[in-house]
From TrEMBL:
<keyword id="KW-0131">Cell cycle</keyword>
<dbReference type="Pfam" id="PF00004">
    <property type="entry name" value="AAA"/>
</dbReference>
<dbReference type="InterPro" id="IPR003593">
    <property type="entry name" value="AAA+_ATPase"/>
</dbReference>
<feature type="domain" description="AAA+ ATPase">
    <location>
        <begin position="176"/>
        <end position="309"/>
    </location>
</feature>
<dbReference type="GO" id="GO:0051301">
    <property type="term" value="P:cell division"/>
</dbReference>
<comment type="similarity">
    <text>Belongs to the AAA ATPase family.</text>
</comment>
<dbReference type="InterPro" id="IPR027417">
    <property type="entry name" value="P-loop_NTPase"/>
</dbReference>
<keyword id="KW-0132">Cell division</keyword>
<protein>
    <submittedName>
        <fullName>cDNA FLJ13966 fis, clone Y79AA1001394, weakly similar to CELL DIVISION PROTEIN FTSH HOMOLOG</fullName>
    </submittedName>
</protein>
<dbReference type="InterPro" id="IPR003959">
    <property type="entry name" value="ATPase_AAA_core"/>
</dbReference>
<dbReference type="GO" id="GO:0016887">
    <property type="term" value="F:ATP hydrolysis activity"/>
</dbReference>
<dbReference type="InterPro" id="IPR021911">
    <property type="entry name" value="ATAD3_N"/>
</dbReference>
<keyword id="KW-0547">Nucleotide-binding</keyword>
<dbReference type="Pfam" id="PF12037">
    <property type="entry name" value="ATAD3_N"/>
</dbReference>
<dbReference type="GO" id="GO:0005524">
    <property type="term" value="F:ATP binding"/>
</dbReference>
<keyword id="KW-0067">ATP-binding</keyword>
Length: 480
């Protein structure tokens, strides 16, 4: 009974609440309908007052601005001070912008390394902070002998020593450096001599390759200018060595090169055309005949690096045998063991068997001796192991020569085929080349068609040369 009463009370209360809400909503709607005109008028009055306020503010601001501008224009001192201030502000902004760019280029030229440079002995601030001990040793080191660790023929040795002495004296007397071309087969010591020349002369060196220029595209000209700007900031003098120069300095008239590469070559010619007391250029190439004529006219000295003969090969074998075998056998924690045999006789025999090989290939042969010893169980290098490495190197060399012969003459041949048993060439031609720099005038003689690659078929014999130093086949060869 009580539960029913409570439910009844709640139901009545809910109905009363709904009636009250409905009554209030109707009353509110009725009041809004009756007061719509009044509310609309109030909104209109507020908008009118706001518009009047804005217009008055504009009039007041315009009046104040006009009076202030009139007073400013009529006051000559204020006008002068304002113009001077704006001028100083513009000069300050412009100067700050350009000073930042100049400072950036200055820091880049002295602290950074150009993107074209692969290796350099020039000391930078970052390198000095990272390796202070090594940098101190380099600064305190004395100039090295230009031919230390370099094996050349006696005539070439005398020639390059004269060049080294002249370069060192040029640096001492602050003269103008000469541009040098080193040409000849790969692996004959051109890069090594360039480094030694810089160290002997007390100069820094920087090494770049001609193949790195073409991929730069439009950035090549800017990179080339940055390279020479960086070279001109060297206090000790810089020897800029370009390896594989023929990949970049090709003939513009006959070779198909892009506009970007042509522009980069023109920028290089501009810098090369002026002698400097800050840097010298040393170019290395296997195919100098592919150079542009403008490059040839800018070269002061040409040095031909030929393949080592019997005497030079024996010196090279002994040098690398000492560095790669004897020293590891007596020094270091992991010692290489060496069997007992006549080392001198073996070096002479290896020199005889490696006829036609370059100094680099002989160095690789010595490294193979060391690797073979380390790969053995007992770590002992025997005479038989050395002979096996030599035979393998000779077979590889002969295979390379067969590949080069299959390509035909004038395709960048590295070594003479006359050192390979059973190989004979009989391709000859009559040539008249007025570009040969003979003192007596143009050369006219029969030459081997392989002369451009340094290959002369038949038995080995001393080569003759014209007045300009051009090699040609020795007398006695058959002419077809």
């Amino acid at each position: 009974m009580r539960r029913a009463t409570v439910e009844r009370e709640m139901e009545l209360r809910h109905k009363n609440e709904m009636l009250r809400v409905e009554t209030e909503a109707r009353a509110r709607a009725k009041a809004e309908r009756e007061n719509a005109d009044i509310i609309r008028e109030q909104i209109r009055l507020k908008a009118s007052e706001h518009r009047q306020t804005v217009l008055e503010s504009i009039r007041t601001a315009g009046t104040l601005f006009g009076e202030g501008f009139r007073a400013f224009v009529t006051d000559r001192d204020k006008v002068t001070a304002t113009v001077a201030g704006l001028t100083l502000l513009a000069v300050g902004v412009y100067s700050a912008k350009n000073a930042t760019a100049v400072t950036g280029r200055f820091i880049e030229a002295r602290l950074g390394k150009p993107s074209l440079v692969r290796e350099t002995s020039r000391i930078t601030v970052l390198e000095a902070l990272r390796h202070p001990i090594q940098v101190s040793r380099r600064l305190l080191s004395r100039p090295q002998d230009v031919l230390e660790g370099v094996v050349l023929s006696p005539s070439l040795e005398a020639r390059v020593r004269d060049i080294a002495i002249a370069t060192r004296n040029t640096k001492k007397n602050r003269g103008l450096y000469r541009h040098i071309l080193l040409y000849g087969p790969p692996g004959t010591g051109k890069t090594l001599f360039a480094k030694k020349l810089a160290l002997h002369s007390g100069m820094d060196y920087a090494i770049m390759t001609g193949g790195d220029v073409a991929p730069m595209g439009r950035e090549g000209v800017t990179a080339m200018h940055k390279l020479f700007d960086w070279a001109n900031t060297s206090r000790r003098g810089l020897l800029l060595f370009m390896d594989e120069a023929d990949a970049f300095l090709r003939k513009r008239a006959t070779e198909e090169i892009s506009k970007d590469l042509r522009a980069t070559l023109n920028a290089f010619l501009y810098h090369m055309g002026q002698h400097s007391n800050k840097f010298m250029l040393v170019l290395a190439s296997n195919l100098p005949e592919q150079f542009d004529c403008a490059i040839n006219s800018r070269i002061d000295v040409m040095v031909h690096f030929d393949l080592p003969q019997q005497e030079e090969r024996e010196r090279l074998v002994r040098l690398h045998f000492d560095n790669c075998v004897l020293k590891p056998a007596t020094e270091g924690k992991r010692r290489l063991k060496l069997a007992q045999f006549d080392y001198g006789r073996k070096c002479s025999e290896v020199a005889r068997l490696t006829e036609g090989m370059s100094g680099r290939e002989i160095a690789q042969l010595a490294v193979s001796w060391q690797a073979t010893a380390y790969a053995s169980k007992d770590g002992v290098l025997t005479e038989a192991m050395m002979d096996a490495c030599v035979q393998d190197a000779v077979q590889q060399y002969r295979q390379k020569m067969r590949w080069l012969k299959a390509e035909g003459p004038g395709r960048g041949v590295e070594h003479p085929l006359s050192g390979v048993q059973g190989e004979t060439l009989t391709s000859w031609s009559l040539a008249t080349d007025p570009s040969y720099p003979c003192l007596a005038g143009p050369c006219t003689f029969r030459i081997c068609s392989w002369m451009g690659t340094g290959l002369c078929p038949g038995p080995l014999s001393p080569r003759m040369s014209c007045g300009g130093g051009r090699p040609f086949c020795p007398p006695g060869h058959p002419l077809l």
